Amino acid sequence: MNKTKKKLRTYRDSGRQISCITCYDSSFSKILSDANIDIILVGDSLGMVIKGETNTHSVNMEEIIYHTRCVSKNNKNSILMVDMPINSYSDSVNALKNAKAILENKGDIIKIEYKDEHQDILKQLISQEIPVCAHLGYLPQFSLSKKDIKIYGKDTEERSKILSQAKILDDMQVDLLLLECVDPNLAIEITKSTKAPVIGIGSGDKCNGQVQVLYDIIGISENAPKFSTNFLKECRTIEEAVAEFKNYVSNLKIN
Ligand code: KIV
C-alpha cells in the first residue's frame, strides 16, 4: 500500500480528528510541519489569498507547482496535498500528466473538485496508484456566482446526490474525501458510511478531520467565512495559534 494511503488509514484508525491547513510558502510550511499538522494543503485558494483575485479560476499548473515546491522545502512529516487547478483535469491525458507533475514535485496526494463527469478520469488516476482526494459539496472552481456559496445537501435530491457520489468514490477507493459546506448531518452520514477518511470545512465538526485556510485561522483574511475561527486572537504567536488549532481538532469527537 502506498505510504500516503497507509498514513491516512492510520490517522483514521487512531480515532482522533485529522488536522489540515492550507499553505503556500516554505516559512509557513515549517510552522505547520513543526506543529505536526497532519495534512498541509497547497490549495487553489491561493488565487484569492496570494494573488488577490476574487476566486480560484485564474490559478494554473505552473503556479501550483511553484507553490508546491516552496511548501515542500520545509515539510517534514505532514502529508502534502495539492489542488489540481481548474482545467488541469479536463480529460484523462491532461489529468494524468498534471497529477504526475505534482507528485514529481513532492506532492503526496492530489485533490480534485469532483463532478460525475470526472469518474473515469479519477478511475484512471487511481489505477496508476496516484493518491486522490475527492472534494464534494461547494466546488469553488465550478462556481460562477456568490449564490453558490451555501450549505449543500439540505434538500432530499441534493442530499442523495452527494451521498451517492461519496459512495461511488469510496467504492473506487479514493484515499480521502473532502466535504466543503455540506450539511453537518449529511457529513456525519458520509463519515459513518465510507472507508475513506472524511475531512470537512464548514461541514460540522464530526467528520474524521477538519480543514481550514491558514489566513482565516490567523485572522488576516479579508473575507473569512463565518465557520472559521481566528485562533491567533487568544494566542501570542502564530506558532501557538497553529498548535491551538491542532489541539482543538485532535480533541473533537468523530460522528
Ligand atoms: O483551495 C483551498 O483552500 C481548498 C480548501 C477550502 C478546502 O480547497
Account of the 3D structure:
This protein is an alpha/beta fold and 255 residues long. 40% of the residues lie in helices and 15% in strands. The chain has one domain (3-250): TIM Barrel (Alpha-Beta Barrel). The chain has helices spanning 3-14, 26-34, 46-49, 61-73, 92-104, 119-127, 156-171, 184-193, 214-217, 238-250; strands at 18-22, 39-42, 79-83, 109-113, 132-137, 176-180, 198-201, 209-212. The model has no long low-confidence stretch (mean pLDDT 97). 3-methyl-2-oxobutanoic acid is lined by residues 22, 43-45, 83, 178, 180, 201, 211, 213.
Structural class: alpha/beta
* CATH C-level: Alpha Beta
- The Cα radius of gyration reads 17 Å
User: What summary fits the major beta sheet?
Assistant: 8 strands, parallel, barrel
Oligomeric state of shown chains: single chain
Please describe the structure with a list of short key phrases separated by commas or semicolons.
alpha/beta; TIM Barrel; 8-stranded parallel β-barrel; globular; binds 3-methyl-2-oxobutanoic acid
Précis, in short:
The chain is an alpha/beta fold and 255 residues long.
SSE topology:
Blueprint: H1 3-14, E1 18-22, H2 26-34, E2 39-42, H3 46-49, H4 61-73, E3 79-83, H5 92-104, E4 109-113, H6 119-127, E5 132-137, H7 156-171, E6 176-180, H8 184-193, E7 198-201, E8 209-212, H9 214-217, H10 238-250
Parallel strand pairs: 1-2, 1-8, 2-3, 3-4, 4-5, 5-6, 6-7, 7-8
Helix pairs in contact: 2-4, 5-6, 7-8
The structure holds 3-methyl-2-oxobutanoic acid.
